[in-house]
């Protein structure tokens, strides 16, 4: 199984040169640490930052420079700062090429629930609904099961939805899956994890074609 850093490292392979990318709270924020230096990529945060870099080293944090999750960040040369209205204008006008979000649940149709558990206090949805409504390419970074070992990749989401049929790909600690018109297609498996184990821990049916390769990581 993958840890959170490895999930982020695998998702970083989906980032292409010239992309504008929005990173959600949680595992997605780690993706910036693994994008190859030779790629020209701009990371955007809905609180009003364009040009985020990796997380700062301990002792080098600047409390005035944060992302939407209130984590301290670094900025790259040429980075810019602006108000939230301008930031959401960028999102709503589809200037962001790739959005990477965490999720509590994802359905086989690409529905996502990532903002509320009934009965628990939350401050609000934040920018999640704008992101899923506007982005054409959404990748979800998540753990495959909850603390009870139950699948978070479902036929139908049970939690309040953030967006409907918007997720393109899911990268979990067990597998990489693609949302297709015919259902979820298993693309890759985590090192040491069998296809049978992934099927066992996934409520939604999986399309399996041929031999499923293991994810590859640089040593």
From TrEMBL:
Keyword annotations from UniProtKB, A to Z: Transferase
GO terms of molecular function: CoA-transferase activity
Any one Pfam family match given in the protein's UniProt record, by short name: CoA_trans
PROSITE patterns named in the record: COA_TRANSF_2
The keyword Ribonucleoprotein is assigned to this record: no
Record bears the keyword Hydrolase: no
Superkingdom of source: Bacteria
Entry similarity comment: Belongs to the 3-oxoacid CoA-transferase subunit B family.
Protein name: CoA transferase subunit B
Organism: Planobacterium oryzisoli
């Amino acid at each position: 199984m993958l840890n959170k850093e490895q999930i982020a490292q695998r998702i970083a392979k989906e980032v292409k040169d010239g992309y504008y990318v929005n990173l959600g709270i949680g595992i997605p924020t780690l993706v910036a640490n693994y994008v190859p230096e030779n790629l020209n990529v701009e990371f955007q945060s809905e609180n009003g930052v364009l040009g985020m870099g990796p997380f700062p080293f301990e002792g080098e944090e600047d409390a005035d420079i944060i992302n939407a999750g209130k984590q301290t960040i670094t900025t790259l040369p040429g980075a810019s700062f602006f108000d939230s209205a301008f930031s959401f204008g960028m999102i709503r006008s589809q200037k962001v090429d790739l959005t990477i979000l965490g999720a509590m649940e994802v359905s086989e149709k690409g529905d996502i629930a990532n903002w509320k558990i009934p009965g628990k206090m939350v401050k609000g949805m934040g920018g999640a609904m704008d992101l899923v409504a506007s982005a054409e390419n959404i990748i979800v970074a998540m753990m495959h099961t909850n603390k009870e070992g139950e699948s978070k990749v479902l036929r139908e989401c049970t939690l309040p939805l953030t967006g409907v049929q918007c997720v393109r790909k899911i990268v979990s600690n067990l597998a990489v899956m693609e949302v297709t018109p015919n259902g979820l297609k298993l693309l890759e498996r985590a090192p040491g994890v069998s296809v049978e184990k992934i099927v066992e821990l996934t409520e939604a049916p999986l399309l399996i074609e041929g031999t499923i390769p293991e994810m590859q990581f640089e040593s």
